[in-house]
Design brief:
With about 525 residues, the protein is mainly α. Helix content is about 70%, strand content about 0%. The two termini are about 45 Å apart.
């Protein structure tokens, strides 16, 4: 029954997406990567949300909620503040300049060499970190939901290999055939499904814990092991509370304001107001997501002890507590979230490669007509990086310190260095390209050394914040030593209307206040001590 409902839902989403986009052409880069810049706010908001969450989020955050507490929810809740800052300060700059990729701004601000370096860093991050993590997380989730290893009579590691290649192949085909427009239609449908039926999982889990009564289950988690409800992380937790104000804020600002596969969703919007509405909708979704990303892990702490591989806790819980039809429904949501992020990563990678690496290389050269077709080149590149990601993904099984923490720690090697030179570029006018190149290499080498070769006894998010400050000062010093002879001026080249949303600031403030109240709810001031 679970498999039947899974197939029906996935087939329905694909059929609906095809029907809505059957007349759309993907024969141009603008159509393939930016949906001809015609997306409405619901498509932008759901696209941002589903591009952000995937099975890595479901698996990793629930794992840490099970092992530690709900402090890991800080990644999602603090992103609300970052999203409002990006919506108000950064996105208007992108839309006014008419850029296609975030490194395009770096070329305008610094020079082409900085753009090329950052484009390659983005690609490295997607190939070795983002895409493999998405595939690995989905493989673990589906094995837990459907017990595929048991049905096939093979080991968990072999099952992961099999599922990674199946999911990766399906995602690649969808990316090649549909482009960004088909992806955003799917996201909108999945967004509706997530915030209706998807939120039933905590109810089923509480009812299972309470032996048929969700009220009894709720009483159990509010009266025992309440430390798991705490969002205020201690020093020994995966996410200490102090990191919210240091590296976590920087990573979130990078992610929502610089990450290519995220910004690409924004650049496809009809205008600035639509974009800001979409970001607000995605922010609202982030405030609701702890019900799926954290609460199941807390409930699991009351149900299971001594799970050998803690990354399987979400899929084990979902498989145990859900009725068969609902298991298929939930699996379809997870599959959709996986495919969404995977395709967004492929689109982001291909746009970076074609626009920032390939086209400059062939400029002025005479090539066969087929090799000059940028859309065909983009699709070939998507296939190539898909294969590489599928080969890397199964080895994440050997990551230490928790899957989600490993994912964020590796991502820091690429994220905050790029954000640092972007921010300095936004705020200064004479800091030269030399400073950007020096800052990038200094940051990456320093951070990599602290994580790979010696232990500096600090949380990796604190290390990121310290290096951010040092790198910024280094760039400013180089700017004083060798300033640009002609100060940078931002030139207007907008492709869409850039009139801001009238109620954007009011709604943004309300969302930030709601995020603070959510932290207070899951803290010693709220539910943690309610039963004491």
């Amino acid at each position: 029954m679970a498999l039947i409902s899974f197939i029906i839902i996935i087939f329905s989403v694909v059929l609906f997406s095809w029907f809505k986009t059957r007349k759309e052409k993907t024969g141009t880069l603008n159509a393939l990567f930016f949906a001809n810049r015609k997306l409405g706010f619901a498509a932008v908001g759901c696209g941002l949300l589903f591009t952000n969450i995937n099975t890595a989020s479901f698996i990793g955050e629930n794992e840490l909620s099970y092992v530690n507490n709900m402090s890991v929810m800080a990644w999602g809740i603090t992103s609300v503040l970052a999203m409002q800052l990006v919506s108000e300060l950064i996105i208007p700059i992108y839309l006014r300049t008419g850029i296609a990729t975030t490194p395009d701004f770096l070329e305008l601000r610094y020079d082409r060499s900085v753009k090329s370096i950052v484009s390659l860093l983005f690609l490295a991050n997607y190939i070795v970190n983002l895409l493999p993590a998405v595939l690995y997380g989905s493989a673990v989730a589906f094995d837990g939901l459907f017990d595929i290893s048991g049905h096939l009579g093979i080991g968990p590691q072999a099952t992961v290999w099999l599922l990674v290649w199946v999911i990766g192949t399906l995602g690649t085909l969808y990316a090649l055939l549909g482009g960004l427009k088909a992806l955003t239609v799917s996201d909108t449908v999945l967004g509706f499904a997530l915030f209706t039926g998807g939120l039933l999982l905590p109810y089923f889990a509480l009812r299972y814990l309470g032996a048929g009564s969700w009220q009894a289950g709720l009483h159990t988690i509010l009266s025992s092991k309440t430390e798991h409800l705490n969002s205020i992380g201690k020093a020994g937790d995966a996410i200490p509370f102090s990191t919210i104000f240091t590296g976590m804020l920087l990573v979130n600002l990078y992610y929502w304001g610089t990450e290519q596969y995220i910004v690409q969703q924004v650049l496809a919007s009809k205008d600035l107001a639509t974009c800001q509405k979409g970001i607000a909708l995605a922010s609202l979704g982030k405030l609701v997501l702890p019900l799926l990303l954290n609460i199941p892990g807390v409930i699991a702490a009351h149900l299971y002890t001594g799970i050998p591989n803690t990354s399987t806790v979400f899929s084990k819980l979902a498989g145990d507590v859900s009725p068969p039809a609902y298991s298929g429904y939930l699996a379809a949501l997870l599959f959709g979230a996986t495919i969404t992020t995977f395709i967004a990563g492929l689109n982001g990678s291909a746009s970076l490669f074609v626009l920032n690496v390939y086209k400059p290389l062939i400029a002025g050269k005479k090539l066969p007509s087929g090799e000059q077709d940028p859309v065909r080149t983009a699709k070939k590149f998507q296939v190539l990086i898909s294969i590489i990601a599928m080969m890397i993904a199964p080895f994440i099984l050997f990551a230490t310190g928790g899957f989600y923490t490993w994912l964020q720690k590796i991502g820091g090697l690429f994220s905050v260095p790029i954000f640092t030179i972007m921010l300095v570029g936004f705020l200064t006018k004479r800091v030269p390209p030399l400073a950007a190149r020096t800052g990038l290499f200094f940051f990456i080498i320093s951070y990599g050394s602290t994580q790979l070769f010696f232990d500096c006894k600090l949380h990796f998010l604190h290390v990121l914040a310290i290096l951010f400050v040092i790198t910024t000062l280094l760039m400013l010093l180089i700017g004083r030593w060798r300033p640009m002879s002609i100060p940078f001026e931002l030139k207007q080249n907008s492709r869409v209307a850039v009139q801001p949303w009238k109620y954007g600031r009011i709604v943004g403030l309300a969302l930030v206040v709601a995020s603070i109240l959510l932290f207070m709810l899951f803290s010693p001031m709220g539910l943690v001590n309610i039963g004491k």
